[in-house]
């Protein structure tokens, strides 16, 4: 079974500062994917960034980067130069896919952490 | 139009009633999922489907059933709704690993269900 832990229920950050949201994970699988999603108050889930377990480079997407430390099983999200519009819930998630090619089916789906509520202050 | 569409967006129903939440997608993905979000608990997987003929239970399937009517449609049913099923429900799709160029899940807008 997989587990995602986000230890920061809430964070207050000044606008334009960088912010790091913590995420640790636990899995016995060697192949997995790590994701960060943003959920604004309107409720939709917005994909931010992805890191594969075999990717050697840390993923980056614009102002978002993922600090992947495989040995420590951590996948922290870094937001550079925070903006007021970054205020939202942030979820770390893991995908482990098990394919049973002979019998069909397998296992799939995302395991989510409980989220971090980020508030950017002007 | 959204890639993943959920209907209804909001629903209030009474305890004991049967209710169906519908999801349709235009991404062409084989895999579809239903998640539930409760305050403070993040999203949890209810059911997932590899394709039309392959449906699997997730972490919290008790009290729910699903139907994959076509590649593009995946419905979630509550046979006899109870108040602790009040939650925000999300449908999602993703490509089969190793195909396509994205591994992320694409989410619908969510359905806010209240059982009174």
Properties at a glance:
heterodimer; A: 122 residues; mainly beta; 6-stranded mixed beta sheet; 4-stranded antiparallel beta sheet; 52% strand; elongated; B: 116 residues; 55% strand; globular
Task: Characterise this structure.
Chain A is an all-beta fold. Chain A is built from no helices and 14 strands. Chain A has strands spanning 3-5, 10-14, 19-21, 24-26, 33-39, 46-52, 60-61, 64-69, 74-79, 88-95, 98-99, 106-107, 110-112, 116-121. In chain A, strands 2, 5, 6, 10, 13 and 14 form a six-stranded mixed β-sheet that branches. In chain A, a hairpin with a 2-residue loop joins strand 7 and strand 8. The chains are: A mainly beta (122), B mainly beta (116). The A-B interface holds A 4, 33, 35, 37, 43-45, 47, 50, 52, 91, 93, 95, 97, 99, 104-115 and B 31, 33, 35, 40-45, 48, 50, 54, 56, 58, 88, 90, 92, 94, 97, 103-107, 109-110, 112.
Give a short overview:
With 122 residues, chain A is mainly β. Chain A has strands at residues 3-5, 10-14, 19-21, 24-26, 33-39, 46-52, 60-61, 64-69, 74-79, 88-95, 98-99, 106-107, 110-112, 116-121.
